[in-house]
Amino acid sequence: MPLTVTPTSLPGVLILEPKVFGDARGFFFESFNANEFQAATGLAVTFVQDNHSRSARGVLRGLHYQIQHSQGKLVRVTEGAVFDVAVDLRRSSPHFGRWVGVTLSADNKRQLWVPPGFGHGFLVTSDAAEFLYKTTDYWYPAFERSVRWDDPTVAVQWPLTQAPTLAAKDAAGVSLLEAEVFA
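Predicted structure:
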């Protein structure tokens, strides 16, 4: 599986582009191969859970993280498109509070690696989107935290055309200055 890896402006956050084989019948690609992932990224990760969500245009999910049992996430879109965001929440990092955003879509087949210690969120920019992600640890609701999607300190430049649709937990997110973050 030839895999192109592009670093982002946040060290550790990576854009992954698989080799897609296509013709008039359709396409094929390996969405994950542990050996190729490790060879291309230098990361030996074990995924323990796969998640799948579907959301309508304008739904914004995030910025989520688990303060204990921190999760690395390999995310991708199988239908539609999203603007996907990772935020460095490691207080000791020189990049603390900085974010990076990438468009992931069914068409571009890009994936984003979001390492442990980062917050994650996305905005659906198509009529609907199906979003899949692999995690390196299980979901523990007691440790789930959320930084406000519109926190002025983080200042994510979401490509909004109207007010986003939020879940109650996302609307109740806290500011970065109030958030429980990583050391």
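Summary: The helical segments are 34-41, 168-171.
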